[in-house]
TrEMBL record:
The family this protein is said to belong to: Belongs to the ABC transporter superfamily.
Cross-referenced InterPro entries: AAA+_ATPase, ABC_transporter-like_ATP-bd, P-loop_NTPase
Lineage of the species this protein comes from: Bacteria, Deltaproteobacteria, Bradymonadales, Bradymonadaceae, Bradymonas
Source organism: Bradymonas sediminis
One Pfam short name: ABC_tran
Keywords noted in UniProt: ATP-binding, Nucleotide-binding, Transport
Alphabetized Gene3D superfamilies for the sequence: P-loop containing nucleotide triphosphate hydrolases
Annotated protein name in UniProt: Uncharacterized protein
MF (Gene Ontology): ATP binding; ATP hydrolysis activity
């Protein structure tokens, strides 16, 4: 089991950044999603044992927090969002130092640093100082230090930040390769395309609450049932107003209206509205769902459910 969380809470003073997260998730690749301030970094840092929980209990890879923090750190790699190196160090000495900090003997850490830097494509640059590295190289070296000790799980916080499209694809391919070696990946990213490409499942937070977890395929299948797209014969604006007045959640998407059905609303109710109001429907279909649309639909639903914090 990757995580077993029971009512996990974390407060900063009076501010509750995690409001009781309960979930069990199996090993594999997991996307950690949520808008700014949702609590993603707080959750990662809590699960790494860097922050003390304010309430609840958690285990990571079967190790309990906080008793087994040391074992958790040995089994996990962490690629933080921000830069975390000394610019005057060479790549190899830095990655070896990070290996040493996880408890590896010095000589083993050094040989693993060479290996890992080759693995991330920085073999040629390993004796260069980090201060002169490009953004793409810095991201790779951060990945190398997360992998140097042979973890079972890596937390990757915005690993494609600042990368151009080619660099991003290369980073995602590397992450795919990490996965194929049996290492679990938790990917926190605002780029949902990246999450969809790399992850099988996802955890979604909003304002410190868990609003969804499960496989991405199941989420999309579930949302697909409740989101439909409609195109009318030049009556989109009028129909949107009619639907809004009847309590439907409607958005204009290019030439179509996208309608999210919330029980007890039904497709039949939508079509009845068109007939009653003399609206000519040209096209009517389930929305083609990307993770991005599913994400926005979940957030929209949560915003309507939850009182603002
Ligand atoms: N050290 C801290 N002291 C006080 N408040 C904090 C601290 N760290 C985070 N917060 C607050 O806790 C909330 C959650 O922050 P967190 O960084 O976990 O969110 P996030 O989902 O990672 O956001 P982002 O996507 O912007 O990185 C935010 O409202 C943030 O302002």
């Amino acid at each position: 089991m990757l995580f077993d969380l029971e009512n996990v809470q974390k407060s900063y003073g009076n501010y509750q950044a995690l409001k009781g997260i309960t979930l069990k998730i199996q090993e594999g690749s997991v996307g950690l999603l949520g808008p700014n301030g949702a609590g993603k970094s707080t959750l990662i840092k809590s699960l790494l044992g860097l922050l003390e929980l304010s309430g609840g209990s958690a285990s990571v890879l079967g190790f309990r927090l906080p008793e087994d923090t040391h074992k958790i750190r040995q089994s996990i790699g962490y690629m933080p969002e921000n830069d975390c190196y000394l610019p005057s160090m060479t790549a190899v000495s830095y990655v070896a130092l990070m290996g040493g900090l996880t408890g590896m003997p010095r000589s083993q850490a050094l040989s693993r640093a060479h290996e890992t830097l080759h693995y991330v494509g920085l073999g040629e640059a390993r004796y260069r100082k980090l201060g002169g590295f490009s953004t793409g190289m810095k991201q790779r070296v951060k990945l190398a230090q997360a992998l140097v000790h042979g973890p079972r799980l890596v937390f990757l916080d915005e690993p494609t930040n600042g990368l151009d499209p080619q660099g991003r694809d290369e980073m995602l391919d590397l992450i795919g390769d990490v996965k194929s070696r049996g290492i679990s990946v938790v990917l926190s990213s605002h780029i949902l395309y990246d999450v969809e490409k790399v992850c099988e499942s996802m955890i979604m937070l909003d304002q410190g609450e868990l609003i969804h977890f499960g496989t991405i395929a199941a989420l999309k299948a579930d949302r697909q049932k409740s989101i439909v797209e409609i195109e009318t014969k030049e009556q989109n604006e009028q129909f949107a107003e009619i639907l809004k007045a009847r309590g439907f959640s409607v958005q204009q998407q290019g030439l179509r209206l996208q309608v999210r059905l919330v029980a007890p609303q039904t497709v039949q109710g939508l079509l009845d509205a068109a007939i009653e109001e003399d609206i000519q429907v040209r096209r009517f279909m389930p929305a083609e769902l990307t993770l991005e649309k599913a994400f926005l639909s979940l957030l929209d639903e949560h915003a309507h459910k939850a009182p603002a914090a």
